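Support request, please re-run this one:
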Amino acid sequence: MGRLSYRLGRWLFTLALLMLLGPIPLVLAWRFFEPPTTAMILARMVERYWRDQRPFYPHRHAVPLARISPHLRRAVLAAEDDRFYLHYGFDFLEIGRALDDYDRGKPLRGASTISQQTAKNLFLWEGRSFLRKGLEAYLTVILELLLPKDRILEIYLNLAEWGDGIFGAEAASQAYFGKPAMSLTRQEAARLAAILPNPRQWEPDDAVAQRRARRILGRMTRQVER
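Re-run finished. Output below.
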């Protein structure tokens, strides 16, 4: 019994070590190469398979950051993580604001950074469990330590979900506006950024998305003024 417990403990320790260290060589490779797929995309692929929805694999086309409109880059930062270039993966100022709003009776809102969202999309499942959030924090640290900020943003923009079966800025731009991502106007960029919180329910022309787009445009103006 003692020997069996020892072997089981050693096996579990080895498995935990592999889970913790396994992402490191992947992230190092992604400094130079595009991730071929993600946990989020695979999950959506399974959903599409069970719904018999073709194609099973969601449409995605990765492009360099230089081929994504600066308007979209600014719009996404304004919408999702205005302090992206000022923090190291966790925006404690925004977390504090979210908690203050909650104390004043407002609904608890998310304060995940682009780095955290990228870690989740690459490796994890959806949900709010302590285990998932803990793994997300660990993976966020790895991303921030091993990748430049521009590369994290580039991966995020190429992996973000923008609709049912639509992943990445290029696919979203073609699907909604019939043009490459590098040609998006300021208004189009804001409308795309507006649907990121709920891309499977909202589209750029929806009323709720247009209201969010107007707020995003205001934040983009303040970005330029700073």
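The two ends are 67 Å apart (CA to CA). The chain has one domain: 23-51+64-225.
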